[in-house]
Write a structure and sequence with these properties.
Blueprint: E1 3-7, E2 31-36, E3 45-50, E4 61-67, E5 77-79, E6 82-92, E7 94-107, E8 113-120, E9 124-126, E10 130-138, E11 142-144, E12 149-158, E13 165-170, E14 174-177
Parallel strand pairs: 2-4
Antiparallel strand pairs: 1-2, 1-14, 3-13, 4-12, 5-11, 6-10, 6-13, 6-14, 7-8, 7-9, 7-12
């Protein structure tokens, strides 16, 4: 079984953080949102800007952040191995920008990164206006403890030397998590969202 967590218009509790990614946070135009089970999709558009690579040391910068709420159960909660799917709706693309990496992180209630759950480096161009789907597969169980939350870091690369480039995104998509049917009650699923 899999459970969808809706991207919303609500800001992420810990804002823009590199978390487990180790990727420098964009200082130009990052964006963050909370994800919730049963939440309401954001209907507005948001511009995400990445500086030219002369200003980022030729390195990608983390620019989009998605965060779930803290686990509120008394005990630990295991998410089994499987596919974690991150969807991103780009309503206005730019051929200079690409997704260089996506990190799924487990962080505690104070925002300290505890574990890298999975990571991919898709080198996906964001030239087209479309919904991009990224699948990250885990081989083992991921254990969340009380207060932990999921944090998704999407890093972008800009092919331009000096010019900042932007894409427009709409946070109306979902993050899908491989939760077993036996653990599918709403109370348990607060590990990621409301």
């Amino acid at each position: 079984m899999a459970v969808d967590y809706q991207q919303t218009a609500t800001a992420a509790p810990h804002g823009n953080a590199s978390a487990c990614s180790g990727v420098t946070v964009s200082t130009v135009g990052p964006a963050n949102r909370q994800i919730e089970e049963g939440g309401s999709a954001d209907t507005s558009d948001t511009t995400v800007t990445v500086a030219g690579y002369a200003f980022t040391g030729s390195s990608p910068t983390s620019a989009i952040f998605l965060e779930g709420e803290a686990l509120t159960l008394a005990g630990n909660f295991d998410v089994p191995a499987g596919d974690w799917v991150v969807n991103l709706n780009v309503v206005s693309g730019d051929s200079n920008l690409s997704v260089s990496s996506i990190h799924l992180c487990r962080m505690n209630t104070t925002g300290i990164p505890l574990q890298t759950i999975a990571t991919i480096s898709p080198a996906q161009s964001l030239a087209s206006s479309q919904v991009y789907t990224f699948t990250l597969t885990t081989a083992g169980v991921t254990t969340f403890t009380p207060g932990d939350r999921l944090y998704v870091v999407i890093s972008l690369a800009n092919a331009q030397l000096v010019s900042g480039k932007s894409v427009t995104v709409r946070f109306d998509q979902v993050v899908t998590v491989p939760i077993e049917a036996s653990n599918s009650s709403a109370a348990v699923r607060r590990v990621l969202g409301d």
